[in-house]
Request: fold
Amino acid sequence: METNFSRTEMLIGCDALSALKNAKVLVAGVGGVGGYVVEALARAGVGRIGVLDNDCIHESNLNRQILATTSTIGKKKVEVAKERILSINPQCVVDVYETFYLPENADSIPLENYDFIVDAVDTVSAKLELIVRAKALGVNIVSSMGTGNKLGDDFEIADIKKTSVCPLAKVMRKELKARGIDSLTVVYSKETPVSPQYQVEEKGRHIPASISYPPAIAGLKLAGYVIRVLID
Reply:
């Protein structure tokens, strides 16, 4: 008799499926990239998923975020993520952290409780705090670089020291090196960012332009990497 994970078990075997069921993964940022990470982890049978985000779903998210539909506008992303995970796998344990991750409140998030952390947050300060803490704890972490202002689909997994072109990766390389970290697995694209047709400013910064598929590709690449490590 088929179950929700029988096709997965056919591919990876019983032991690997059990490893996923026993795995604990925290996804920090459940927007364009992180939402697709959550989707793939839930459908692969990961047994415990933490979702961390403080934002609500906005109409402008509809073009690229899997959690964004006309019926979820205005709702908290973490609550929508939890509902979606449980609608896919009711046996999954979902930890909800409705917070904007900052150095000041980082102690409130138990990173040590997870086997893997996926960094899909937007701000450099939050990314650095997550990475530094995960490295100090010995917890696996993989990080998303920029997906805005992109039209290509050539995202790849690499160590950050081997990245090029991506403006966010350049900043992160410098900041991590200053903190004594020279190795970090990331997903990034070598595509030169596209110049937006016009600029939109919010809270003193230019908002990146976006389209449906680059965040999805980056998110699924991240999820695939995490899953393969967990079952190795």
The chain is about 35% helix and 15% strand.
